[in-house]
Amino acid sequence: MKPLVRGTEYAASSMAPGLNSADYIHTSVEAMKLAMADRDTYLGYTDFIKIPYSGLLSTEYAAERRKLIDPAGIARVSPRATFGNSHPALNR
Length: 92
Description:
Layout: H1 2-5, H2 22-42, H3 53-56, H4 59-66, H5 79-83
């Protein structure tokens, strides 16, 4: 979740303006939803599935996922359906 909020105004420190404001909580919850969608996609026994750790943690993938966080409302698109395994960072 941390790479998702890294590019937002709330990433500077835990004392950033607006800490615990509605905007801060909204951004955190939306980032958590995206992180949990990725977790749900790749959760499994590693002897049977390939988990693209470096791709999931890459700054380019986080930047793309961050675009799904709408500051004006709740995401209307299924976070999991947005990229699936098709993002280049996940195929390294």
